[in-house]
Amino acid sequence: MSDLDRAIAQLRSCRPIPESQVREICHKARELLIEEGNVVTVAAPVTICGDIHGQFHDLMELFRVGGDVPDTNYLFMGDFVDRGFYSLETFLLLLCLKVRYPDRMTLIRGNHESRQITTVYGFYDECIRKYGSANVWRYCCDVFDYLALGAIVLGASNTLSTGTEPVDEDTEIEVCDQSGTVMSRFPRPMPRPNSAEGPARSPNGGGGGSGDRTGPPGSGASGSSGGSIGNPTGAVLCVHGGLSPLIDTVDKIRLIDRKQEVPHEGAMCDLLWSDPDEIDGWGLSPRGAGFLFGADIVKIFNHRNDLSLIARAHQLVMEGFKEMFDASIVTVWSAPNYCYRCGNVAAVLELSEDESGTGLFARSNGDVGRSDGGRGVMMEGETFVRNGPARRYRVFQAAPQDSRGMPAKKPVADYFL
Amino acid sequence: MEPPQKPVAPPALPALPTLKLLDLSNLPPFSKPIKRINDGPDVSRFLKSLAYRDIGIFILQLNHALVPRHQPNTPLPRVFPLPSTNTVSNTQSIRALQQLLEVVESYLDEAPPDPGPRRFGNVSFRKWHGLLEERIDGLLDEGRLGETLKVGNGQAKEEVSSYLLGSFGSSQRLDYGTGHELSFLAFLGGLWKLGFFQDGQQQDGEIEREIVLSVIEPYLRVVRKLILTYTLEPAGSHGVWGLDDHAFMPYIFGSAQLTRPINSNEATPLEGSVRGAPRPADVTKPTAVEDYRKVNMYFSAIGFINDVKKGPFWEHSPILFDISGIKDGWGKINKGMIKMFNAEVLSKFPVVQHFTFGELFSWDLDPEAAEPAQSVHMANQPIVSAAVAGTSGPPPPGSGTGAPWAQATRMPPASSGPGIPYTRAPPGPSSGSLGARPTGRSFGGETTNAQISVTKAPWAKD
């Protein structure tokens, strides 16, 4: 058993690893992350997760529900740390898994992966308490600076893979509970009879760039079923917060110099801080960082960038996930009973692999159709909605708590000495 | 357990300072209190202000009154448990505030929580708060309150009213935190200065005890009801690493209720518990908490945590859990709570930035205040801006006007006169706000429902 495997085993049992080992792993992780682009390309199948916030036992529950690493390919959209009791164990475990299985684990940065935020919201205090010094906090923060800002999921299927129960081809959304039992299913809306190839059914042009709306159905990369709903979907953009008024194409994200503390404003800040909202255009965020953005912004952005969906985290949703704006954006939240009191359930989003066999689109590194961005269509001001990938949400509750042993009381803060 | 008290009283100390009454024949020019703390470094200026001095005096005065007292001719000390909730005070001023709180609470019936879709905080809280804003003027016109607040052409009323209005959370952010709690303390302190509580028993802390047990605790009950009804989020939560999501004062006054007894002219004890007090470790036992929450403010606060949180106590409240391991009794806890309040509430930019200053709580320099010294607490702050500067990040916020960590956690030395008498904040995990300058944009969007524990940018101006 390698040192890394031992560290993983120790962290899985929720015990912190020695400071020297943290240093080593953070160093290795940085070497790995430095090679990643700002926007990582991930091939489906993938399980997309939202905020964890140091809820280690709930992360274990997530792995139980979603499948273990490396069997399941995971994408975590940030906010591993702060607020919870086990930010340290949570982040280090995810980081170790990243180093051990780099192709099966994608970590992108959340607004809490920042020096300034962690000093206000708990992770700094936790490191001091668990190690007696800020060294481990510093090592972790140095890793934060190298985390990618987003990910593009390619090759997601229009149909769901078979879960615990057989699934129809026309199922667009399936919601399962933590034991895999199907709670609800939503079929794709049927095409309108007089416009069978209406905008929502428009095939993805595969490598074809912006011409996707004019091509005949089923052209391009072709669908898995050959039917009107069987076309491969556009890509899925994953980002912690949302969009930025300074970013109109995914390529612009790639141009950011990300290896720094999260700035207080600008594109990088916005990607990690913004929220979708029921407004038109852009609005000021009550958070004091990032912006609010409306449905029009999302639809234009998705169209321009050949995206079918934006997956993001950053906001508690009581049901674990929330699709907005005609399913053009979804919030995924993976911290059940947030802060021990919110009473919410958590969710992960599974996208299955398009097995139509073309593979063309899926392996193209996410740049397909983005160079010209479909500007012509944009200028017409259309709010064209791409046919999204089939989505399975696994909803789960907080891990049972009775098995956790009570630790010894630690020395109190100096106020009480 | 405390050994029987010594028969010989210790040497009498100079009387504990109490908040001075205003000279009603020579009133200052009251005005609507305004915000003064706009930037991190303003916090250190605040710590030298008359307002800071007065808040400190008032807290310590109230705290001292709750400490159990030796009684002549009996070995049993006099303790000061919470009265039962339906006890009506005979003191007119206290009764007036109890009635005010009852009225304010009744607005909940007029603003039932919105059943519609929401993320977390319930927008109907805005309606409740609107009712308060609408009616606060009338509320303060009634009876003894109205008489007291007539002074200064009604301007004193404006000052007092703004503190009361700030006591019940933010309707914009749908949150509640220690800053709002502080505002209620200022409301009471303002009334004190105007002589409102002069009708009570002034000797040996009697009226102070009534203020805490019969006004502050009922206020906390109203606040808890608001938090539950509208799922108000903790303002600026440190998550599990804060003392409590919303409150601080009940931990100060509740620990005072359980410290070892003193004679009235003695200082507040720094260790020891009164005979019969629950043990500090009992806060981790739900049954003990249920037993004591009706009589003790500390246990009342813990009881509320147990009501709203699910999970092991040591995990969701590790700071309180650790404190429950203290061996030197409730006096030690009380001393620590006051220090911690000074450092984590009064010295923290995100909390005190909302405090407003007028004549009752004045921004003027306290002539007695010493120049704050660099504290260990400050020195131990993670130096974020240095880390930022080491990369290609933006310049540290507030550069040019002082380093962002230079705000706060400075205290006058104990010998420098009144105020909270501790010379330094501890070097503990201070996790302070960085008190940064806002970045130029002015925020205040109202379109998004607040959520519990939504993260706000610490550099944002409210």
TrEMBL record, chain A:
Residues 108-113 form the Serine/threonine specific protein phosphatases domain. Residues 204-227 have a biased composition (Gly residues). Its EC number is 3.1.3.16. PROSITE patterns: SER_THR_PHOSPHATASE. The active site is at H112. One of its GO terms (molecular function) is metal ion binding. InterPro entries: Calcineurin-like_PHP, Metallo-depent_PP-like, PPA2-like, Ser/Thr-sp_prot-phosphatase. Keywords: Hydrolase, Manganese, Metal-binding. It catalyses: O-phospho-L-threonyl-[protein] + H2O = L-threonyl-[protein] + phosphate. Residues 182-227 are annotated as: Disordered. Belongs to the PPP phosphatase family. This is Serine/threonine-protein phosphatase. It comes from Clonostachys byssicola. The lineage of its organism: Eukaryota, Fungi, Dikarya, Ascomycota, Pezizomycotina.
UniProtKB/TrEMBL annotation, chain B:
Transmembrane segments: none annotated. Keywords: Cytoplasm, Isomerase, Nucleus, Rotamase. Gene3D superfamilies: 1.20.120.1150. Pfam families: PTPA. One of its GO terms (cellular component) is protein phosphatase type 2A complex. GO terms for biological process: mitotic spindle organization. Residues 445-454 have a biased composition (Polar residues). It catalyses: [protein]-peptidylproline (omega=180) = [protein]-peptidylproline (omega=0). It is found in: Cytoplasm; Nucleus. This is Serine/threonine-protein phosphatase 2A activator. It comes from Clonostachys byssicola.
